[in-house]
Design a protein that fits this description.
single chain, alpha+beta, two-stranded antiparallel sheet, two-stranded antiparallel ribbon
Length: 89
């Protein structure tokens, strides 16, 4: 959600024209796989996301400083560098 202050009236407005998306951005927003409903034997429904819309919440503790950093990533094998590692560069 966006809210901006209208420079003419000074009031808050939520009606902001959004920029046009490039073809590459539009393609990135398209789902890569269609989720599938699976009816379980007990009558409940499970959704198979087919590997899409899944993120991992990871916390890293810097071994030198003990500081914690959190991130949401799509691949837990490719974690962002910790803030302390960035400071060293």
């Amino acid at each position: 959600m966006r809210a901006v202050i209208d420079p003419e009236t000074g009031t808050i407005s939520g009606n902001v024209p959004l920029p046009e998306l490039s073809e590459a951005d539009k393609a990135a927003l398209e789902p890569q796989a269609t989720p599938e409903k699976i009816l379980l034997p007990d009558g409940s429904i499970m959704i198979d996301l087919k590997g899409t819309m899944q993120e991992y919440y990871v916390m890293q503790i810097d071994p030198k400083t003990g500081k914690r950093s959190e991130a949401c990533v799509t691949d837990p094998n490719h974690l962002p560098p910790t803030p302390a590692a960035l400071e060293e560069k």
